[in-house]
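Entry: Hemin receptor
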Amino acid sequence: MKAKYIMLAAAMVALPAAAQETYENAKLAGTDLNGTARYVGMGGAMEALGADLSTISTNPAGIGLYRHSAAAVSGGLVTQGSVPGYTNGDKTHASFDQGGFVYSMRGRNNSFLNLAFNYSKSRNFDFILGSAGRLNNASSNKLTYQKWRNGAFDNGDGAYSQVDHLNANYFNMKKDSANYPATDYMLSREHTGYIGNYDFNISGNIQDRVYLGVTFGIKDVHYTHDGWYNETLNTYPIYYTDHRHIYGTGFDVTAGVIVRPIETSPFRFGIYVKTPTWYDLTTENYSTIGDGKNQYAVNDNDPNESYDYKITTPWKFGFSLGHTVGNYLALGATYEYADYSSMKTRINDGVDYYWDEWGYYDGVETSHKDAEMNRHTSQTLKGVSTLKLGAEVKPVKDFAIRFGYNYVSPMYEKSGVKGFLQNGNPVYSNGIYYSSTADYTNWKATNRFTFGLGYNVQKWNFDLAYQYSCQKGDFYPFASYIENTATASPEDNIPTSCEVKNNRSQLLLTIGYNF
């Protein structure tokens, strides 16, 4: 046993930069409903209606419907509901959500060529997670012991996490894990940050019947979480702290078309496709374990673990319908699909240096796919369908009332488990080692309800939107580990799950100018 313990500690220092873990990657892959207040007020169902800056990143052909130049900025407040009293963090945050312009140039035969730029916040990470429940003699350190006893630390790729490393050093890997059963747990974690989109678009139309557009997008990632997790053992409490910061950039390309098939009708349909986002990211974290008197860090010599990695999100496809009645009614509907089980992670190998033909010493960064983690992702995540519906009514010329609804199907499989495959085997990946928390949440479907108002004053427009988003999830403090699948065993380590919620309200204001 002592030899295995020494091997675990040494392996921690030797591991190279690695890929990330499925549940952390999934946080970066999805998108919020955000943008201009008109777009949000109509539930984002404007991919065929167009003529709104927010369609630049969904269906770029929507920018081709502009007949004049325009600029807009948007910002507001985001507030979280259903926050347990024992958690830490701010429930309400101010947010700058959008800023952009389109420059429209008239051509011949009623055609236009438009150039546009827009900044938008595709993900707002501000969220407080809290959970508490009974453990009934299960515990995080018992899971570490079971993984160690069953050889999970013997593979050079590593199926142990930083949490396992903390447990192994603090508890010193006692033979009898029953000495450390836990009665209950409590977790509090604050997530902050955002993903910013910087979209550059070229679009236009052909005789006011066919609209085409392409957008090149650059993404800027800033994600941070701070939190603590506490287990109450029979004799004393044990607490874990974790700070993680993920930052980096990505890029993607989106292409779309809108067609008005009947010359005498305003009805139109849109089709668009978005390439994967190719992310280059860096993550830093600092994790500790302690009992109020003694504290042990994941790496005492260098308190911050840091490494670079790559992830590739899935392709996204969309189809939309739009129709207007006179100048007083607009209706839109959009369907999108993305298969998140196809998301990929890559392990950075470092830089290969060489002398080029000009005699300069140069280098190329190389990487290879993390096959084991990609297998886990394919079993844990799944395809997501998004339905967006929206309507705008103008009871008088310059005043608009808007309504919208979104349904986003679950991204996570109900049977998904952090760090384990469906056959019960642990995931042998360097991405598991760099995982500094044991908990995970299998989030369910998202429902969004929106309402908006708009008012035009000469060349100015003022739009206000309210969005309520609600989502539930099954939270697990750590993965279950069953020694014998046929019969229950005293060595089984099965935590109880807890329902958590991500309910948020957004108040958004847009000020626009046409010129």
